[in-house]
Write a structure and sequence with these properties.
Blueprint lengths: L1 E17 L2 E15 L2 E7 L9 H9 L7 H7 L4 H18 L3 H4 L12 E3 L4 H10 L5 E5 L5 H11 L4 E5 L6 H13 L2 E5 L19 E3 L18 E4 L1 H4 L2 H13 L3 E4 L6 H10 L5 E2 L17 E2 L2 E2 L9
Amino acid sequence: MQIDVTRDIFRLAQVFTISRGSRTEAKVLTARVTSDGVTGRGECVPYARYGETLESVEAEIAGLSGDLTREGLRDLLPPGAARNAVDCALWDWEAKRAGRRVWELAGLPAPGPMITAYTLSLDTPDAMRAQAAKNAHRPLLKIKLGTPDDMPRVEAVRAGAPGATIIVDANEGWSAEVYSDLAPHLVRLGVAMVEQPMPAGQDGMLAEIARPLPVCADESCHDRASLTDLRGKYDMVNIKLDKTGGLTEALALRDAARAEGYKVMVGCMVGSSLAMAPAVLVAQGAEVVDLDGPLLLAEDRDRPLHYDAAGVHPPEAGLWG
C-alpha cells in the first residue's frame, strides 16, 4: 500500500475571524492510499489549539508504511488530524475497491440531506448584523463569540435575522460567572445552545451551576475516552473528525455519547468538501449539524458537496466514499 500526503490551499470567500485570530485561506492536508490500482482520499485540517501544525501532521502521515487497516491505524496514530485523513482515505479506498458506498460498508442507512449551521465571523455588532441580514434565509446561524463584548453582537445578529435559530461558540473564552450572567439573556434572544464556554480542563464549575442554556463540549470532547470527564458538565458533544481521528471513531463516539444521554452535534474545521463528506454520515440524525466549511470557501474540490434549502447533501462517489 502506497501512502502519499500533499498540502492544499483553498481561498476563503471573506476573512474569517474567531477570538483566536483571523484567516483568509484554508490550509489542509490530503492523504492518499493506493493499492490494487485503487486510490482513496481523506482530508484533515491540523489545528494549533491541539499542538498540530501542517509540518507535524504531514510527518505523521508520511511516516506510515505497509498495508494499513483502519483497525491497525488506531495503534499507529493517536486521535487527531493525521489519523483522520488516513482513516477516511482507507474508508474511501475500501468503498472504491468493493464498488459500494461507505455507508453500506459501515452498515448504515442511506444518508440524506441535513440542515447545517452557517457561521458568522466575529466582527463589530454592526457588521455582524449585516452578515445576519444577508443570511437571514438560513434556518440555523452560528455566532463566534468569546470576548468581553459578546451581548451586543448577539443582539445585532438577532435583529438582523429574527427568524433564524441561533447557536453560539464561545471558544473557551468565558468563565462560569460570565456564562451564568449571559445565559438568561441568550435564552431571551432565542439562542439554542452554547459551545465550550470555558477552557477545557477548567470547566468543572459547569457541574455546580444551573445550565438554562444547554452547553456543548467541543475542545473538551475528542473521542470516547473523553466522555467520562464530561458527566454532569455538558448536555451535548461536538463530534469533529479531526478530533476523533477519523470516521471510524466518530461513529463509535456518536453511539457511545447517545447511550450516555448526550445530544449530538457534528462540526468541522474550515476545510473543503472532501473533509465534510465523511462527516455527513456521522451527522445523520444529529440534533445540530455544523458542516458549513465549503460555504465559507471561494474555491473547492471537484464534484463538491451540494448545498440547498434542504441542507448539505451526501457526497457523490466521485468526491468520496
